[in-house]
Amino acid sequence: MTAELVRGQNHPLPQTRLEIRISAGNPIVAGATLGDERGTVHGAEWVAHPASPQLAGIEVPKQAAADHRLAVDLDAMPEHIHRVTVLLALPTGVGGPARFGAMAAPFVAVTGLDGTEIASYTITDLDSESAVSALELYRRQGAWKVRAIGQGYAGGLAAMLHDQGLEQGTDLAARINEAVARGMARSVAQPPPRPDGDGRVRTAAAGGATDPAPAPPQTPPQQPQGTPAAGGSIDYQHPGRRTAALPTPPPVAPPAAPGQPAQPVAGDASGWSMDERLYNQVWGMFEDLARTTAAYRSAVDFAESRMEQELDRVLSDPRTRVGPAADSARAEARAKQTDLVEQARIALDRDVAQLIAEAEVVEPALPYAYARWDSPVWQAYQVPMEVPMALRLGDLHLPERADLRIPMLVRLPLERGLWIDAGRSGSFDGPADSGELRRLAADAAVAIAARMLAVYPAGEFAVHVIDPAGSAAGSFAPLVGAGVLAEPPAAGAQGVSAVLAALTQRVDLVQMAIRSQATDALPPDLDTAEQLLIVHDFPHGFDDRAVTQLRYLADEGPSVGVHLMMVADREDARAYGPVLDPLWRSLLRLTPVADDHLADPWVGHAWTYEPPMVPPGSRVLDQVLGEVGRAVRALRAARARQSYGG
């Protein structure tokens, strides 16, 4: 039975190989310090953090994420280590919350390797703290125990490290924050935790065997809206839904023939709705591909390492360095290496074949929020009545099997802005002409903006465009022609200033209303819909004041529904020097052509990203934007009649 700890309570640990699983509502940094009998940390080398994730007996994630897993082997701890303290901190300079009191209480669980919870702790009563010592594993009379701490620090990571005796805590905190900020600008979100009861069969990390993957700990489930007290019936009706029905259990795959893998079924993950089940299934596929590829790469590295060791032994002995015996030893070493790599490749191909079969079933079942532009689901598109849980921003794949593409889904509303890079990174094979790259970047921005307009109900999402020189008029023509923009694209310095001033004022007003708990006092003409600002050809037409406003919108906008999409060449923006580095790091970098720049914080793979471009010659973009435009005009007309009648 799981021990639910409160602050200060301890619990014995029945095993020494553990996982510490952390769940939070926003991206956080997770790390650990190793202390002596008094808990003192004697140097930076005693701290596991994203810039140095591995120490003897412990490994922590490399990047900030909403969910983490820390691997712990207490038997591998040096004898002088008596305490392992798990640290949580909010990343700085990336646009997220500045204090734990502004987000959901973090949940921490100590589990066995099979996912069985040993002890859990929900860290409550946090307010202005931006760092917290969550719990500690400590050695007592030869046995290990876990204690809930929950000690917060308003002074942040540096104050927490100083409190544990680390004199260079300020410098180390700066290193950690820099590493996290650099990684978040080039990272894809970690897979969400799999809900309890998910019975999907996942490929194991080694050997190609299959077994049910353990479910990570969950925060206490919240009662769905409309759920009465225990004993009553549940009303699943929702006034905003076009149709309403009882949630159905996940589909069950038909029984497979003996010795054959189970037939894949779309929506076989858990969730309240088919959309949620498909979302969880897609991220499960991402996790599977990451894990089986990691196993393959590890096996290849091991084979290379063993071959080099065997060859070194042959060359180190003058008696076996030359001659038939040496040739035979070298051939044998290379044969062993080839055999190991071939076995690993067979396991990889088997696992990937299963994932490809699953993708062939899942892709046609995806709703339009998750679907590619060439999916038939767009032919029956209607403006939705509610916002989906996620949006597809493109596809991801790894070089081992480029034919298997996983949808890149991000949760809505967006937690961070986007930077569509119009320059060459040196890692993709795309058009060499800079003008063509800029056009593709603008087209990618329009395709993503159109997807966002399509998945929001009419009137709940507005798009603004800044195009100072009017150089992307052709790319923005579909948005202008459909009448879905809040106003025509802003041009010139005056247009840039007007749009930025209006959105900055909106952020200020909404923030003040929220802080004062007086949202009913907002001006009646204030547009409370989610806002997206597309900035093209930056920094052309921007002065220092406009740049400052952009940084403010990137940092403060997402929390009040204002999102930023930059379309620019990073090299062009370097003219402003380091002043733009925080803006660059706070945005998720996407590219208009395939590029292997996105790193996952789970196993550290570099994923190739492909943008969600509309197929050449397709009219789907005009069709979808036409539906959105008609719905927006009908809503405006209805509001005008209501206002006139009042």
Q: Percent range for helical residues?
A: 25-40%
* Strand composition percent: 15-25%
Distance between the termini: 62 Å
Number of strands: 23
Rg on CA atoms, Å: 27 Å
Q: What is the mean pLDDT?
A: 83
Question: Which outline best applies?
Answer: globular
By DSSP (H or I, 4+ residues per run), the number of helices equals 11
Oligomer: single chain
Structural class comes to alpha+beta
Task: Report what the structure shows.
It is a single chain. The chain is α+β, with helices and mostly antiparallel strands. Helices cover 33% and strands 21% of the residues. The protein contains 11 helices and 23 strands. The chain has helices at 156-163, 169-184, 274-316, 324-362, 434-455, 473-482, 492-515, 544-556, 570-573, 581-586, 620-645; strands at residues 3-4, 10-12, 17-35, 47-48, 54-55, 58-59, 65-73, 83-89, 107-112, 117-122, 131-140, 143-153, 201-203, 210-212, 390-397, 406-411, 418-421, 461-466, 530-538, 562-568, 588-590, 595-599, 606-610. The strands form 4 sheets. Strands 1, 2, 3, 4, 5, 6, 7, 8, 9, 10, 11 and 12 form a 12-stranded mixed sheet that branches. Strands 18-19-20-17-21 form a 5-stranded parallel sheet, with helices on both faces. A 4-stranded antiparallel sheet has the order 16-15-23-22. Helix 8 (544-556) links the parallel strand 19 (530-538) and strand 20. Helix 3 packs antiparallel against helix 4. The chain is globular, with a radius of gyration of 27 Å. It starts with a strand and ends with a helix.
